[in-house]
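We modelled the chain as a single entity of 163 amino acids. Its sequence is:
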Amino acid sequence: MRINGLQGGGLGLLELLKVPLKLSTQRGWEHFHHEADMGIRGRGATLEAAFEAAACALTAVLTDLERVEDREEVSLVCEGEDVEILFVDWLNALIFEMSTRKMLFRRFEVKRDGSRLFGRAWGEPVRVEHHQPAVEVKGASFTELKVQEIPGEGWMAQTVVDV
């Protein structure tokens, strides 16, 4: 089993929570602990860039992003009555695609038109021996959900994902 860069086997929940959190300041994403689940946060100059960075954080819960190649493209369309619901819908659409296509994604592009989001994700089919997925993400929640513009810094989008 691979958890956030560590090799091990049979780690229980308490051990999982002691694992250092990942942070990618160059890519604008980070993880934060939340009880038995994992928080993901994306930052960017634009709302779309923050959503893209949060998608990277989502994949990084599962595996090391550097192990994923962008061989195949998947298009997604989401809709939400506000940016927070749109964010959760975006993440859940990615989780659905990962689960049903048995893929991991490493690169993302988001365009927004009002309440609609048009996204593209690039990745490859899961190769367990190569990607060593740590956990399965079941869904994005409304727990600690926040999407906001931070004056002088850009946008931040965060939530907790159920693992």
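As a brief sanity check on the tokenised model: The chain has one domain: 22-162. Confidence is low (pLDDT under 50) at residues 1-21.
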